[in-house]
Amino acid sequence: MKSATTAHEVARLAQVSQSAVSRTFTAGASVSEETRTKVLAAAKTLGYRPNALARSLITRRSHIVALVMSYLENQFYPLVIEKLSQQLQKQGYHVLMFISEMDEADAVLTEILQYQVDGIVMASTMLSSALADTCAHAGVPVILFNRIADTGEHTRADTSSVTSDNYSGGRMVASLLLERGHQRIAFLAGLENSSTNLERERGFTAVLDEAGQQLHSRAVGHYSFERAQQAARTLFATRDRPDAVFVANDHMAIAVMDVLRLELKLRVPEDVSVVGFDDVPQAAWGSYSLTTVVQSVEDMVGATVDLLYSQMQGETGPRNVVVPCRLVERLSVRAAT
Question: What is the value of pTM for the model shown?
Answer without folding.
Answer: 0.81
